[in-house]
Amino acid sequence: MYLPIAVLAFYSFNRSPYSGAWEGFTWEWYEKLFSDERILSALQNSLIVAFSAVGISAVLGTLMAVGLARYRFRGKSLYRGISYLPLIIPDIAIAVATLVFLAAFAIRLNVWTIVAAHVVFCLAYIGLVVSSRLTNLNPYLEEAALDLGATPVQAFIQVLLPQLMPGIIAGCLLAFVLSLDDFLIASFTAGSGSNTLPMEIFSRIRTGVKPDINALSVILIVVSAIVAFVAESIRASANSQHLH
């Protein structure tokens, strides 16, 4: 499963501008990436989209998870199902639906329309992770805070939120990776001059895969893997502490 990634990493150090023949080891392609204006612009757009989408989703996703876990209201089951639909709906369906919605309201495509589209699936992932964290918490701690005179807001901020923080951070890191790596939804909702990093990679490989694209792909894979590993470590550590 990981052999193609290993081959990709191997040829990213190839001195030859053509990936098919090995001509020696070099760091040249990695150095060129940091002086490529198109790559840097795409990276800036990707980071803006990822941080913005995750920031918005962290607030809404946490509130959604707490509301579904702590309160009863009419249509709760239906709302829960709709909230987590982006986890199972194909990306192409989300992309087309978002584009049709934006076109219907004559909204101009730009970086912020990508952010809005990414909030849709980031919200579901963060809500799911926070919900799983909520099931392992002691509900009596929040009730004790209320009995001792705390307001519901104070109990939420000072008692519940600190306990949820590992889940929130893990969910945010997972959503960050998904947003950073997304190509399909971003390509449907991006305006002119708002390419993200995966879109830039795709536009370049249409003329042939070069070592600089290999190098960029390796960096993207490594960063995504590190962030995913940290997210899983935080989640596992939080669950382990609760069990002990």
From TrEMBL:
The keyword DNA repair does not apply. InterPro entries: Bact_Polyamine_Transport, MetI-like, MetI-like_sf. It is a multi-pass membrane protein. It comes from the Bacteria. GO terms for cellular component: plasma membrane. The chain crosses the membrane at residues 45-69, 81-105, 111-130, 213-231. It is found in: Cell membrane. Keywords: Cell membrane, Membrane, Transmembrane, Transmembrane helix, Transport. The keyword Phosphoprotein does not apply. GO terms for biological process: transmembrane transport. Residues 43-231 form the ABC transmembrane type-1 domain. Belongs to the binding-protein-dependent transport system permease family. CysTW subfamily. PANTHER family: PUTRESCINE TRANSPORT SYSTEM PERMEASE PROTEIN POTI. This is ABC transporter permease.
